[in-house]
Design brief:
By secondary structure, the protein is of the alpha/beta class. The protein contains 17 helices and eleven strands. Bound molecules: NADPH dihydro-nicotinamide-adenine-dinucleotide phosphate, 1-deoxy-D-xylulose-5-phosphate and manganese (II) ion. Its cofactor is Mg(2+); Mn(2+).
Length: 382
């Protein structure tokens, strides 16, 4: 039996991960962590009987205890609780919490030599160098869950690092792929939450709509695969069937294709290097018919440009970009700012937080906090 901890178990990735585990019979769930959805968490605890359970705050802890009065489990709370779940002895930690909150549990996982199955891209964006250093020092490993990076991980199994010419990350283009710029000023929350191909949590769905998601994924790919930014390209592919590709020096392109179903990358990250049979629907290319590709539009999607610039700038810039974006997306979801204000808030914050090379996670968390406070000020201006 392999032991697994799932952080963000009540979210879209966490729920699908438990579904994957229900058909693999060699894994024991030892830790579950979530935020405030205690009803769903209680159901998961009843079924998987983890030894430790994390929740966001004291109110959630009390509510969970009331729902499970006789359950033998340690309940841990807040960001410290998340770290405790990641640090609890296990072979694999699936980090599927949303946002920069994923940094400390990622460090706790790789720092004890366990496998980090990584959905939480924000931790690599904000603290990629530190997490990779901790992973190398402790002999840990990271296997991506993000669909594009899972695809690239598979594509790169067919060549040596020095044979790679470039990585091509595919992007659906989101719900506004073909909208003219003036119409994008009228975007509602409902419009932006209507992703064409994927059913995901709200924050990543808005990131897909602004294409910030793809920018974050470029930075994620840079860290995961050690490839410089000038060798990472983005290509819009509205069908989300080709999940990404690696181009080799001889002109060969190796792509990974599958249905748009996150259960596959989740299972891959858990069972790697083995592949297990999967019971869900498979890709039928004849019924898909045609696949389309086009260049991204950096003018209508300035978040993509901002993220790629922040990645190239390095240092604290990606952390600042990510923190400002988290605040701006939250404000858009609360209808405090319009859609097109998201990149404006991010750009304004990036211009004001000085860029340095972080020496420690404390430097990263300090810049994250500073960027959030500034972003709140810009949000308050509307
Ligand atoms: N969804 C997808 O298909 C993909 C997601 N990802 C990445 O995976 C991550 C998760 O995404 P997704 O599942 O869509 O997000 P969701 O919003 O669906 O889920 C987020 C999870 O984080 C938990 N959470 C929120 N606040 C806290 C907190 N304070 N302490 C502990 N846990 C907390 C939530 O708990 P609760 O609900 O109980 O409050 C929930 O379990 C993101 O980084 C995203 O970018 C990457 C590729 C694809
Ligand atoms: C499923 C997944 O990995 C998401 O990150 C997805 O790729 C988002 O789609 P976009 O290509 O629209 O950003
Ligand atoms: Mn993705």
């Amino acid at each position: 039996m392999k032991r697994i901890a799932i952080l963000g178990s009540t979210g879209t990735i966490g729920v699908q991960a438990l579904e994957v585990l229900s058909h693999l019979d060699t894994y024991e769930v030892v830790a579950l962590a979530a935020g405030r959805n205690v009803e769903r968490l209680a159901e998961q605890v009843r079924r998987y009987r983890p030894q430790v359970v994390g929740v966001a705050d004291e109110a959630a802890r009390r509510a969970l205890r009331e729902l499970l009065p006789g359950e033998r489990m340690d309940i841990v709370v807040g960001d410290e609780g998340l770290v405790a779940c990641a640090a609890y002895p296990s072979d694999i930690v699936l980090n599927a919490v949303v946002g920069a909150r994923g940094i400390l549990p990622a460090l706790a996982t790789v720092g004890r030599g366990a496998r980090l199955a990584l959905a939480n891209k924000e931790c690599l964006v904000a603290a990629g160098d530190l997490i990779l250093r901790a992973m190398r020092d402790a002999g840990g490993e990271m296997v991506p869950v993000d669909s594009e990076h899972c695809a690239l991980h598979q594509c790169l199994r067919s060549g040596q690092p020095e044979e790679v010419l470039r990585l091509v990350l595919t992007a659906s283009g989101g719900p506004f792929r073909s909208w003219p710029k003036d119409r994008m000023a009228e975007v509602t929350v409902r419009d932006a939450l209507r992703h064409p191909n994927w059913n995901m949590g709200q924050k990543i769905t808005i990131d897909s709509a602004t294409m910030m998601n793809k920018g974050l994924e470029v930075i994620e790919a840079h860290h995961l695969f050690g490839v410089p930014y000038d060798k990472i390209a983005v290509l819009v592919h509205p069908e989300s069937i080709v999940h990404s590709m690696a181009e080799f020096v001889d002109g060969s392109m190796v792509a990974q294709l599958a249905t748009a179903d996150m259960r596959l990358p989740i299972q891959y990250a858990i069972t790697y290097p083995e592949r297990s049979p999967a019971p869900w629907p498979r890709l039928n290319l004849a019924s898909v018919g045609a696949l389309h590709f086009e260049e991204p539009d950096f003018d209508r999607f300035p978040c993509l440009r901002l993220a790629m610039e922040a990645g190239r700038a390095g240092g604290l810039a990606p952390c600042v970009l990510n923190a400002a974006n988290e605040v701006a997306v939250e404000a858009f979801l609360r209808e405090q700012i319009p859609f097109l204000r998201i990149p404006e808030v991010v750009e304004a914050v990036l211009e004001r937080v000085p860029n340095e090379v972080p020496q420690s996670v404390e430097d990263v968390l300090r810049a994250d906090g500073q960027a959030r406070r500034l972003a709140e000020l810009y949000v308050a201006k509307g």
